[in-house]
Amino acid sequence: MNRRKFLGLGLAAVALAPVAINAIDFRKEKPDAWTAKTIDDAIKALYGDVKPIESDKIKIKNPKVASNGGAVPVGIKSDIDAKSVALFQEVNPESAVAVWTVPEGGIIDYSTKIKMKASGTLTVVVEGKDGKLYKKTTDKMEVALGGCEG
């Protein structure tokens, strides 16, 4: 392939890329969710008065004891056909941590690191394409103070 053809295809791909991305800026669209002090208030600010259904189809992977509250690893998996996934925690001043828009045909297999100032639980809410909200809450996770587990 010659250089001009290669560059032309590259520019065409870049020009089309923003059209393919369909993400919602939840901080702009739902600002009250990011200042909510409780998980229930944050869920209500994001999704309205709909009550989430407890679901075993959501898996949350987190340590039982986090050795560093500044970088707690969290994994989220689900096979629910979803529009969005939201992560909340109960101990920091604001409960909402992150919201992901799930693309068409997307797989929910996310991992991130979050900050937690103390021991507490995590809650994940999956907004299904069926219009229902599904929820999973972890057992209480211990956050070691001082950066050690002992």
Provide an overview of this structure.
By secondary structure, the protein is an alpha+beta fold. The chain is built from 3 helices and 10 strands. The strands form 3 sheets. Strands 1-9-8-5-6 form a 5-stranded mixed β-sheet, with helices on one face.
Main sheet: strands, sense, barrel: 5 strands, mixed
**Terminal residue distance:** 60 Å
Tally of distinct domains: 1
- Second rung of CATH, namely the architecture: Sandwich
Order of strands, main sheet, comes to: 1-9-8-5-6
Q: Which superfamily, in CATH terms, is the homologous superfamily?
A: SoxY domain
SSE order, as H and E? HHHEEEEEEEEEE
Low-pLDDT stretches:
4-8, 11-21
Mean pLDDT: 85
Identify the CATH class: Mainly Beta
Record field, number of beta strands: 10
Structural class: alpha+beta
What is the CATH topology assignment? Immunoglobulin-like
The amount of beta strand, in percent, is 25-35%
What is the overall silhouette?
Answer: globular
Portion of residues in helices? Answer: 10-25%
Gyration radius, rounded? 19 Å
Q: How many DSSP helices?
A: 3
